[in-house]
Design goal:
Layout: H1 5-29, H2 36-40, E1 44-48, H3 53-62, E2 75-79, E3 84-92, E4 95-100, E5 129-134, E6 138-146, E7 154-161, E8 170-178, E9 181-187, E10 213-220, E11 227-234, E12 252-253, E13 256-257, E14 264-265, E15 276-285, E16 288-303, E17 308-323, E18 329-339, E19 355-357, E20 365-367, E21 369-380, E22 385-396, H4 400-405, E23 418-429, E24 434-446, E25 452-465
Antiparallel strand pairs: 1-2, 2-3, 3-6, 3-25, 4-5, 4-25, 6-7, 7-8, 8-9, 9-10, 10-11, 11-15, 12-13, 14-16, 15-16, 16-17, 17-18, 18-21, 19-20, 21-22, 22-23, 23-24, 24-25
Amino acid sequence: MKLSFTFITKYLWLLLTFVLLIYSHISLYANTSPDIEAVSRQVINFTKVHADSLINLMLYKDRPKGNKDIPVPHFAISTEDNSFVLSIGGQINPIIGGDLGNNLYQISGAGINFTTNAIPVPAQSGKRSDFFINTLNADVDLQIVGLGGTRNQITGYIQFGANGTNNNLSLKKAFISFYGFTAGRKTTLLSDEKAGQPTTIDPQGPSGRVSATVHEIMYQTPYYKGFAGAIGLDIATFYSSNGRYYGKDYKEWNDESAEGELVCNPNYYTQYIPDLPVWIEWAYSDYNRIRFSGVIRNFLYRDEVQKLKRHAIGWGLMVSGNLNPIEPLILYLQAIYGKGLGYYIQDFSGLPLSFTPSSAQLGKMTPTPMMGINLGATYNFNKKWQANTVISQARLWDIGTYAIQESKEPGNINNYRYAMYWATNLLYNFSSYFQIGVEYDFGRRTTWNVGSGSDSRIMTQFMFTF
């Protein structure tokens, strides 16, 4: 793996700043360690995390908890009083597989990810199958906890990894958590990481899942009688059309054909208003819970007909949760509906269809109605064997003309009406370090005017976790 000197220098400085911040906090708040020198004189312990419930809980408290995230590492370094805890963890997950029906692995934007929005329609002659060995699915994380186990606990977390398509190392997550506040680069709080999906070998997961990495500041309340809530601000990312008119209500504009004319300019203004996600949850236990979530978005654009600054409001409402009716079985639900949510729903991220010119009001843009739904299940036969299955759909409405206009060849990419996703797998844990598994994935993407295309994939993973 080749890394530039600039890249290495940049993130070494980031790491140094990160460590100094934690130590500064220790110096400020620790009752038993009034300065860094006192901390440095303590005995340093090398701890097996899963044998120490206190350190395990401290590390688990603020780290990412999704099925795709790195679990709590096996080992940590800590001071005697846990005023400083450092862990380094990671996953190495080579995947071997093959496609049948299409060559999705070779499509830009897909690769190792079974991305249904990239399934070519129709399948290209001579490109209806593929075989791959992918070794670019690996991540490493660093977590530092200051004043662990106290009300002043502060956590810093950084994750680097490859994206499965090339050997470039990228910063995936970096955030700090303190007193219920979290700020940094992380998964949006609109995403319900426990309910979004069961474990899949497919690194991306279901088409209708709510999952986006954002720059966010958020606050989550403590749980009280099973209830908790959260609110945040996300730096907004929008995927809109280019603002050219292809509606049916106006045939002419300024005595000329209106078709294809730039009536809205989505790039004229900086999008300075953040998204506002919120949720409220009730939980009886870890996997008997229900959550109601919502998000409000404000999209700025220029009305080129009246030369005005305008706003288009996007919004979404979601219900999600888990049910654990018997000990080996866990059920998953996530369903979202709204308008202009393209950045948050997995299959719509990157599609230029979340906001398009209004057909009836020349010069105005309107958010596109969309939906994502996932249903899943996990069955734990014992500590070694686990089976998972998930089915999902993502769908757009009232967008056919613009989806056709934004279509890209080959494969009619962006011409998206709805897609189905299904994955089922069987996993075996040799130990807490090593897991193997086999999975079958099926996806079908339907367009507005050229039919549909599908792909099947079989994947085998060999995942080492440390």
